[in-house]
Amino acid sequence: MSNINFEFANMAYLEDLSGGNTQLIKEILQLFIKQTPPDMELLASHIHQEDWEKVYKQAHHIKPTLAYVGANGMRAELQEIESLAKNRQDLNQITAKFDALAPKLEILYGELNVYLQTID
């Protein structure tokens, strides 16, 4: 498989999970690239509305998908958002944390698209 070093993506987990099945990897990555942006838009909307229950649930929903693409740092950032919303603590930090995470996701999508071009 690919030995490309990315800033955020680490394909080792997905390559291992898939047993090197490039078709399965493609399907998972394409689904991630297609579904994560609307999921993040929904999270942004809940944050804007200060609906902390929905913020918690949406962050919880998105979080595991980041593990598939090896974006564990971003997964941890989403965990912080989830925890703050769930525990109703330091709610003023949630918007800043989300705003810091969003541009990283754009870079991640680019990395995943590059990776998709390297597999058959």
Folded structure, characterized:
This protein has one domain (12-118): Four Helix Bundle (Hemerythrin (Met), subunit A) (Up-down Bundle). The protein has 5 helices and no strands. The protein is elongated. It is mainly α and 120 residues long. The protein has helices at residues 12-18, 22-48, 52-68, 72-87, 92-118. Helix content is 78%, strand content 0%.
SSE map:
Layout: H1 12-18, H2 22-48, H3 52-68, H4 72-87, H5 92-118
Annotation keywords:
120 residues; mainly alpha; 78% helix; HPT_dom_sf; Sig_transdc_His_kin_Hpt_dom; phosphoprotein; protein kinase activity; HPt (Histidine-containing phosphotransfer) domain-containing protein
The helix content is over 70%
Radius of gyration using CA atoms only: 15 Å
- How much strand content do the residues show? under 5%
Number of helices: 5
Strand pairing plus helix content: what structural class?
mainly alpha
Compute the number of strand runs.
Answer: 0
Highest CATH level, the class? Mainly Alpha
Averaged pLDDT: 92
Between the first and last Cα atoms, what is the distance in angstroms? 10 Å
Taking pLDDT < 50 over at least 5 consecutive residues as the criterion, the unreliable ranges are none
